[in-house]
Amino acid sequence: MKTNIIKQKVRFKASPLQVYSALMDSKKHSGFTGEPAKISAKEGGKFTAYGDYISGVNLALIPGKKIVQSWRASDWEEGASSTVTFVFVPEKNGTLLEFLHEGVPAPEAKDIKQGWMDYYWKPMKEMFEA
Asked: Which parts of the chain sit beneath pLDDT 50?
């Protein structure tokens, strides 16, 4: 199966630890997405988001610095999986998030690229600026 890579950079008016926590804390994650999330805070731990639509495993966790997860959507082909990497770079007025999503099934890439912007970055920015 052909796959694509998605790279995005996003700035947040929040500390690296606050941005990390928004992604890794089940209650905060549910708060900005408006959908259920169950997220283990441990390496090797499992997570789900948007109900059971997204699932995966935490591969590497460095609080306030980096998250690496296996990641898949429930409507992908059987066996399809990808890897997401979030790197949190401190800046004067907040955090630069450097995001990499590798192994995205090519037919899904355009929608997933837009989905990160619409369903993650935009509501996270709104949450931090409220």
From this structure: none
